[in-house]
Design goal:
Length: about 400
């Protein structure tokens, strides 16, 4: 592998206003306009600075464990009767998922902006753990907001964050989950903006976050593209990835966007049914999932699960990382243009797929990833036997063992 000093491939999107077609943009309160502009300037300068880029590449390699392997899944391929399945092993990264890529990038940016304090919000705790690890590594103060309901469910991750020196701040308002934690983090940011960087965990939020997080994650596809060309001497027919906010999927897809022969499939959480409240499928209307329409959430215009009155809907998924009412604006734009397809998979199919992958390949994947595995299993009979596909194994499943034990 050549050193990935310039991981982000050129892209015409977003435009200078942070728009992906009609989506994206910047919908923030007056008090955040200046800090967001400061972040945009700092990020632009960092992208053109070899010192920043080589520090990023160095930590990806020595701290996170990149490059991750592209692993040929011989037994799953045989079990399904083709296509030839390759697994991009982001589950092997430090802290157990792709999230660390983005946390390293933004942590270095916080240092560059001379902001000694980082805040983040977390649902299941995975983003909180990755943020806490990077902050410890870089000597940054770290404060993670988390709903009390989530803290009860994710005790192990709360312990990991504290062990890594982060202050975990309980949020006891509203539904006491992720969206309440986001509100508290926003309040903190407005108050402490001079000293504090808000480290957002996915391709969401106001411009430049969706673009910046995508760029930091695009290392996944850059490596995978080179690795598949080496292994197969050709490009893959199809890419599969799960879509929560959309960062691991856009990270894989991005390097292949101009390869018109490569199909892309994003898999959302189908939960336990197609009605609003039962799922977290924002872009899978074609598969029958209802309740999503364009709207503004957390600073960006995108597809949002909402009631007829425009209230943010409750969502459900067996996997916390996919359980979110909005999707990254770039995915909405890829869906509109038909460049990527989006579908959803039920809780039950995801749990079954996690079992199949474990038993054929010896890989216990995260329940988020298992959604992509389920869709691959469903489509395998329709794919050409000797085509190659890449599935992004976004994370490892250790965190999900209690949930899996209840389902099996
Ligand atoms: C957080 C998480 C996701 C969902 O987030 P994206 O931004 O959509 O990638 C998927 N898989 C794992 C393992 C995660 O931790």
């Amino acid at each position: 592998m050549t050193a990935a000093v310039h991981p982000q491939p050129a892209s015409e999107w977003p435009d200078v206003h942070g728009r992906f077609g009609p989506y994206g943009g910047r919908y923030v309160p007056e008090t955040l306009v200046e800090p967001i502009e400061e972040l945009e300037r700092a990020y632009s300068a960092a992208q053109a600075d070899d010192t920043f880029l080589s520090a990023f590449a160095h930590l990806l390699k020595t701290f996170a464990g990149r490059p991750t392997p592209l692993d040929f899944a011989a037994r799953l391929t045989e079990h399904l009767g083709g296509p030839r399945i390759y697994l991009k092993r982001e589950d092997l990264l430090h802290t157990g998922a792709h999230k660390i890529n983005n946390c390293i990038g933004q942590g270095l940016l916080a240092l560059r902006m001379k902001k000694p304090r980082v805040i983040a919000e977390t649902g299941a705790g995975q983003h909180g753990v990755a943020t806490a690890a990077v902050c410890a590594r870089l000597g940054l103060e770290c404060c993670v907001y988390m709903g009390t309901e989530d803290m009860e469910r994710q005790g192990l991750n709360v312990g990991r964050m504290k062990m890594l020196g982060a202050a975990v701040t309980p949020v006891d308002s509203g539904s006491r989950t992720l969206k309440d934690a986001i509100n508290e983090a926003m309040r903190d940011w407005v108050t402490n903006v001079r000293t504090t960087h808000y480290l957002l965990g996915s391709v969401l939020g106001a411009h430049p976050y969706p673009r910046m997080v995508r760029d930091f994650q695009s290392i996944i596809g850059c490596e995978a593209r080179e690795q598949i060309l080496e292994a197969e001497g050709r490009l893959p027919g199809t890419l599969f990835a799960c879509v929560g906010g959309g960062s691991n999927s856009i990270g894989l897809f991005h390097a292949f966007l101009s390869d018109s022969g490569v199909r892309m499939v994003g898999v959302e959480a189908g939960g336990r049914g197609t009605h609003l409240g039962e799922h977290a499928a924002r872009l899978a209307a074609a598969a029958g999932y209802t309740g999503a329409r364009p709207g503004v959430l957390q600073g960006t215009y995108t597809w949002v699960l909402q009631t007829d009155a425009g209230q943010i809907a409750t969502t459900h998924s067996v996997s916390a990382g996919l359980d979110y009412p909005a999707v990254g604006p770039e995915h909405a734009w890829l869906a509109d243009r038909g460049r990527a397809e989006y579908t959803a998979v039920s809780d039950e199919a995801a749990v079954d797929a996690a079992r199949t992958l474990s038993r054929t390949e010896g890989i216990l994947c995260a329940l988020e990833t298992a959604h992509a595995v389920a869709e691959l299993i469903r489509r395998a009979p329709t794919l050409s036997r000797d085509s190659a596909v890449i599935l992004n194994v976004s994370g490892r499943g250790d965190k999900d063992m209690a949930t899996l034990a209840r389902h099996l």
